[in-house]
Request: fold
Amino acid sequence: MLAFITIAASAFATVVAWAADLPMINGEVKKVDESAGKVTIKHDAITNLDMGAMTMVFKANDPSLLKSVKPGDKIKFSADKVNGQITVMAIEKK
Reply:
């Protein structure tokens, strides 16, 4: 059991470090769908994904991220591809 906890803690630390390396992008929340775990964001270019500025729907890596935002909020967020889906990894109000 201790080995499992150690592995899980190590994996969590790796994910946190990985998310910290992603650029924070300026955006504005257009819609929040907590039940689906998705958020619509009008955003600047996402450099790590080679994506221009646009408005699109993102899956939230952790649905609890969506509890802190509402439509109209100006935000900074990071995104990456997870299992083929562009996913919000972190989000914070400006």
